[in-house]
Design goal:
This protein has 182 residues and is α+β, with helices and mostly antiparallel strands. The chain has one domain (31-176): 2-Layer Sandwich (Muramoyl-pentapeptide Carboxypeptidase, domain 2), CATH 3.30.1380.10. Helix content is 32%, strand content 9%. The chain is built from 7 helices and 4 strands, in the order ααβαβαββααα. The protein has helices at residues 12-18, 33-49, 63-71, 110-119, 141-145, 158-162, 171-176; strands at 54-58, 96-101, 123-124, 132-134. The chain has a 4-stranded antiparallel sheet, with helices on one face. The longest helix has 17 residues, at 33-49. The N and C termini lie far apart (64 Å).
């Protein structure tokens, strides 16, 4: 018996260390509401001040959808779209979107959008995946898989809370928020 090796009964925390019980954490089935609110109330409205008309082309993806996209260019004809198989993308956890400009397509100043994303508490995609914006709050993909989630995002300026949908910000309001030139 495993407990016989202890001179006294193990404490509760010791038992946790002895037996690693793997919990099955269900994956989300939709985009995180706090995350998408940050996209819609901060990121897209600030980008519109800079004359971008962003729209989300991909948000939440199921593991199956992610695998289909991952296989494109590998086992399915087409070009590579993602390096993340199903279960390894923040799209699968509801904390990522891909955007495009309605009129410019992907002909965008990605550095400017990356700076806007940072102001909103978001991260931009890596080189080659600039259309991707996410929120992870320093959590790793393994943390997400283990069921951890980032703390709630907050809007950087109170005016963003008061605006009615669709949110239209002005230069003056943006400056009053303390936003830098992006």
């Amino acid at each position: 018996m495993l407990l016989a090796y202890y001179k006294e009964l193990p404490k509760k925390d010791d038992i946790k260390n002895i037996f690693h019980i793997k919990k099955i954490i269900p994956l989300p089935t939709e985009i995180n509401k706090n995350f998408i609110d940050q996209i819609n109330r901060c990121f897209i409205p600030i980008a519109s001040v800079y004359k971008y008309t962003l729209r989300i082309v991909s948000g939440f993806r199921s593991v199956e959808e992610q695998n289909n996209i991952y296989n494109q260019g590998r086992t399915i004809n087409g070009h590579l779209i993602t390096e993340a198989p199903g279960g390894k993308s923040l799209h699968n956890f509801g904390f990522a979107v891909d955007v495009v400009d309605k009129y410019r397509g992907y002909n965008i100043n990605w550095n400017k959008l990356g700076n806007i994303a940072k102001f909103c508490g978001l991260e931009e995609g890596i080189e080659g995946d600039q259309a991707h914006f996410q929120y992870r709050d320093n959590l790793t993909k393994e943390d997400f898989i283990a069921g951890k989630r980032p703390k709630l995002l907050t809007l950087p300026c109170d005016i963003m809370n008061k605006k009615i949908e669709p949110i239209k910000l002005t230069w003056k309001e943006l400056k009053n928020c303390g936003a830098p030139n992006f």
